[in-house]
Amino acid sequence: MADNSKTIFARPDSMTENITHYCPGCTHGIIHRLVAEALDDLGVREKTVGVAPVGCSVLAYNYFNCDFLEAPHGRAPALATGFKRLRPDMIVFTYQGDGDLASIGGNEILHTANRGEKVTTIFVNNAIYGMTGGQMAPTTLPGQITTTSPAGRDTVSTGYPLRISELLSTLATPSYIERVSVHTPMNIVKAKKAIRRAFEYQLEGRCFSLVEVLSTCPTNWGITPGESTKWLDENMVPFFPLGVFKEPENMA
Amino acid sequence: MSQYEVTFAGFGGQGIMTAGQLLSYAGIAEDKQVVWIPSYGPEMRGGTAYCTVVVSKTRIGSPIISNPRCICVFNRPSFDKFEPMVKAGGLLIVNSSLINSTSDREDIRTLYVPANEMAIKAGNPKSSNIVVLGALIGASEVVKYDSIEKTIEKKLGHKKEALESNLKVLKQGYELGRKAMKKKAKV
Amino acid sequence: MTKVLMKGNEAIAEAAIKAGCRAYFCYPITPQSEVAEYMAKRMPEVDGVFLQGESEVGVGNMLFGAAATGRRVFSTSSSPGISLMQESISYMAGAQLPVVLVNIMRGGPGLGGILPAQSDYFQSVKGGGHGDYRLLVLAPSTIQEAVDLMMLSFHLADKYRNPVMMIGDGMIGQMMEPVEFPDKYEEPPLPDKPWALTGAAGRKAQVVKSLFLDPIMLEKNSWLLHEKYEQMKLNETRFELYKVNPKNEILIISYGTMARICQTAIDELEEHGISVGLFRPVSLFPFPEQQLLKAATQKGVKAVLTVEMSTAQMHEDVQRIVMGKTPTEFFGRTGGVVPSPQEVIDQVMGLLDKYPGKKKAQHSASKSKKAQGK
After folding, report:
1. Are A179 and A145 a contacting pair, CB within 8 Å?
2. How many domains does chain B have?
3. Is C363 a residue whose pLDDT tops 90?
4. What's the pLDDT at C373?
5. Same domain? C81 vs C163
């Protein structure tokens, strides 16, 4: 009997077979997969170096089947800069959370974007410090309760959440910056497109690219995974609007 | 004496650092050990930029010289600061075009050189440092005249006019230094 | 090979290029900014990478990323900047990356000053960053030695897969001396770099990291590093003796430019019949411990005098090594004050009074006055 079976879904080559350590309902796994699919689609796995952050995705190198560097907290863009400057023929990406990128690594990401380093940053924004146990992040929403803002984030003493995509899109240096989310299937499809585009820009040597991905953290938000996607939709999306903030074409 | 130290002091633009470097190159040409060390940092902003050159037949120890055997001062603040620092028995060269003071010290030799006037007369107002360098070599034999002449030819050879005037004032400075030393010897 | 007159900072830069380094990252800071200025011109000529980073924190981590390519990478800074790099230095030591750093030291703590100092001895030799690690630390006293040690630093970094730091004071950076460069840096063969990240083509994906969440694995890594440091102690101890002989009454221990100042003092003392030897460590880690102990316990040596531009940092090591077998004394100036040879002479004379030994009569006050008189 002829085999009419066709593979329609499989583990991307750019992912290892390791089981992730992420909590139930966390969307890191989805984002990892989207990055891996992009590397597969573009056929660049064998010439890619990822840079892992400090945070929940500190062990990202266990899940991606490509070479990896493990950076100090917040410094992934600096490592990516150093590596890419010496190996412009390779593909370099950083995978960073909001504490890592927007707080301690604020300077590194700002200047990496401003120098127009030909690297890609996947910025996972879940409005909280996950690994250290749910402390307030620079992206924590006003009034949001965390372990270091037990009465809710007070904007008078701690300011407002940092909108990184908007901030970086004010730079004169050409770049590709888009904010996406992975809380619904439709959004996942859009996120996949954005991540792939970000790598394409790098592959073409065009510009720095950053995709901010809104993500859930049921464990530290203290709600169920189902409630988390709803919370993200109702609270994060209004403050962190989705869409393309900058494209190199616009700069012409 | 196997080691000779010279400090050049003045303000920025007088060719202080260059004079020191030319002397260093001349020392290297004679297969001697040399060290050139500048003042740096906020000192550079106070009107007395200076550098010190050590020329030696043997390995040079301290690059920091508190009391050099010769000091060439190009402006008044440098005269005030460095005149007391010349080593006893040493030589003080004063750019008398810009400094109207004289030294009272009897334990050193002092040579007054109207460096700016001589430089202007030779058609190269910027060459006062070379005048003083010539005088230094005439009065001290820290390096041979030949060595410094060749160094200047090598370093400034690409600008023919500047080279000619520089060599001219070097010679004039040298003669002045020599004459002063001979006079001294007679006394 | 011809001799060229070069500023220390520029000679250091050129030596790095001669050693095959094609990547330099920097942030401006006095008194070493000429390295950056030189590299900005020179690197493009040799198809190398020059990049001025946003901070020393950024620069240190750019080095981290760049070193993971397996190529020779380099940065220079001065004390406060080196403090900012400590994070990346600790990570690079943990991840076993070869990288070369130069610290042209200025006075501290804090913003301190910009004049020459040696007050980063502890920071360089004892860690600086967190964790069980060491840097291989070299200290030149002339520009030619800075050139030679600079090239050697790249070799040693590769040989041991470890950060190497060359430390000099502001004088090493600022002064000019004639130097010679080889046409090509000749070095013994080095192991391959299978750890370098080159893309997972035809091999398994690999990681450069210092993270070991399993304590047994972290301990293993720490002992592995320790073993390297023990190897360094066996193979990479460097020092120089100046006028060390059985007649020595005092032994001076000093490194870098300070050692040259002591040399001048020793020459002058010799003219007055006082024999003083100089022990100059060239590698500060590994420290030439056995050699120092031997020189310090020579018969006739009444005291050992550490002279450094700090408030007795290396002196702690000297005391540890000499173990009281010979009295240990210290003289230092710091904050950017450079001791003169005369100050060193005065210290030696003071010690001869304090430790008269059998020859006391020979060093009367009149003789000491003579030595000082100018």
Report:
1. no
2. 1
3. no
4. 37
5. yes
Structural contact between residues B43 and C20, judged by C-beta atoms closer than 8 angstroms? no
pLDDT at A16: 97
Instruction: Examine residue B187 and state whether it is found in any structural domain, yes or no.
Output: no
- For chain A, what are the domain ranges? 28-149+158-251
The reply to whether C57 and C161 lie within a common domain is yes
Residues of C in contact with A45 (CB under 8 A): 200
State both tokens at C130: 């967190």
- Whether the pLDDT of residue B59 is over 60: the answer is yes
Any CB–CB contact under 8 A between C263 and chain B? yes
Q: Where would I find the beta strands (DSSP E) of chain B?
A: 3-10, 33-38, 49-56, 70-73, 91-95, 109-113
- Domain extent, residue B56, equals 3-182
Q: Of all residues in chain C, what percent carry a pLDDT higher than 70? A: 95
pTM: 0.93
Confidence (pLDDT) at B147: 97
Instruction: Evaluate whether A138 touches A98 at the Cβ level (below 8 Å).
Output: yes
Judge if C11 and C56 occupy the same domain.
yes
| In a shared domain, residues C219 and C273 | no
- Closest residue in A to C208 (Cα) is A69
pLDDT band at residue B42 using 50, 70 and 90 as cut-offs: low
For an interface test with C, give the residue of B40, B147, B154 to mutate (most C CBs within 10 A): B40
Task: Please list every residue in chain C whose beta carbon sits closer than 8 Å to the beta carbon of residue B66.
Answer: 340, 342
C61–A58: do the CB atoms touch at under 8 Å?
Answer: no
Instruction: Count the residues in chain B.
Output: 187
Tell me how far apart the alpha carbons of residues C239 and C220 are, in angstroms, rounded to a whole number.
32
In chain C, the number of structural domains is: 2
C25 touches chain A (CB under 8 A): yes
Topology of domain A28-149+158-251 in CATH is Rossmann fold (3.40.50)
CA distance A102 to A108: 9
In this predicted model, what pLDDT tens digit does every residue of A150-178 receive, in sequence order?
Answer: 999 999 999 999 999 999 999 999 999 99
SS (H, E, C) chain C: CCCEEEEHHHHHHHHHHHCCCCEEEECCCCCCHHHHHHHHHHHHHCCCEEEECCCHHHHHHHHHHHHCCCCCCEEEECHHHHHHHHHHHHHHHHCCCCEEEEEEEECCCCCCCCCECCCCHHHHHCCCCCCCCCCEEECCCCHHHHHHHHHHHHHHHHHHCCEEEEEEEHHHHHCEEEECCCCCCCCCCCCCCCCCCCCCCCCCCCEECCCCCCHHHHHHHHHHHHHHHHHHHHHCCCEEEECCCCCCCEEEECCCHHHHHHHHHHHHHHHCCCCEEEEEECEEECCCHHHHHHHHCCCCCCEEEEEECCCCCHHHHHHHHHCCCCCEEEEECCCCCCCCHHHHHHHHHHHHHHCCCCCHHHCCHHHHHHHHCC
Residue C173 domain boundaries: 4-190+204-235
Judge contact between C222 and C95, C-beta under 8 A. Answer: no
Same-domain pairing of C184 and C309: no
Nearest to C200 among A65, A70, A83 (CB): A65
> C254 — contact with chain B (CB < 8 Å)?
no
Is C159 within the bounds of a domain?
A: yes
B160 has pLDDT over 50? yes
Tell me the per-residue pLDDT of B7-41, one tens digit each, with 9 for 90 and over.
Answer: 999 988 899 999 999 999 999 999 999 999 998 65
CATH number of the domain to which B51 belongs: 3.40.920.10
Percent of chain C with pLDDT over 90: 92
Residues C228 and C286 grouped into a single domain: no
Query: Considering only A86-90, B178-182, C342-346, which range has the smallest mean pLDDT?
Result: B178-182
pLDDT at B1: 54
Q: At what angle do helices C143-160 and C215-235 cross, to 10 degrees?
A: 140
Residue-level pLDDT at C366:
40
pLDDT (average), residues C142-162? 98
